[in-house]
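Re-run requested by the PI after the first attempt was lost when the workstation crashed. Everything re-entered from the original request form. Ligand of interest: zinc ion.
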Amino acid sequence: MVASSNDIRTNSDKSSIYEDRGWKRSDPVPDHIYDIHKSLVEEEVIIRSEIISCSKQFISKIEKDLPNPDKKRRIKRCHYVNLCPICNNLLEQFVEKQMNPYRQVLLDNGGKNILMTFKLRHNQKSSLKHLQKVLKDSIKKLKDDNIWKRTLFPSKYRFYVKTEYEISWSQENGFHPHCHLQIGTTNPMPTDEMKSLVALAWKRIVTTVSPNKFFIPNLSNGVDVTDTPSGKHSKDKDPYGMDKLKRMHKKSHKEMKEKFKKLNTTGTERIKGSFSLLQMQTNLKDVFIPVLKEIYRTTVKRFRRIFFNVNTHHTLISKISSK
Ligand SMILES: [Zn+2]
């Protein structure tokens, strides 16, 4: 398969990348992510050759590092951040590292890290591609709306915005692309008031973006708003024990493989609940393989999954640069 120019890739590593990103020079990707990559290749969810060979070899650094002749190689990554679990994990770590100092300064100075989750109404029959487009266009419009720009997060209050698109799936309701926005803000407006304002705006905007009135969310389900100092999505579920799997991995690689095998052969019982991409990738029940193939095939043109923007006009910026 030939890579099309629409697929988003990060820039190639530079020799300074580890210092830039604050990583140790050892591989920062955890083992269970490599296992997910391997399983997706084995199950032919990942079929593109560059992604299959991601992280399988070392390449020489662009410039020779004369003072450190031993450190002349780096791991060759594919950089398909929306399609490769390894490169996706690296990007998430990078954005997290990038955001941390800003969040800390904000919290130290009485600001709030507000997490907003935006959803659409949908059913089993809604196409993933179409839902992604409606979601992306609506988020873009929202950030440009007067409620957003003048009332909720005007420049004097808005310190940063982290935008994160996620896809979950359930047998009952099909694909559920949604968007998490984390806004660092010094607006003293109570969180409840923000929620009622943004819920109205979201409903209005989706109504103008979507040709299908079915997608329009109702006021109570379209948006979640919480004050989240940690920056973590506290509501993310862990029904298949991802954390346990990670811990097990430290204990024994063999045990982990057996757990995967067991999960793979549980058969065709009805799958209850809603699953994140990570949960589906970790637990390749037969039912998830076609779902994952659909997700991996339907990466919308110029669809950036996660990114972080800082407002350099906010007064707190001086506390960042003076550190
Ligand atoms: Zn990769």
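Saved to the shared folder this time. The CA atoms of residues 24 and 199 lie 42 Å apart.
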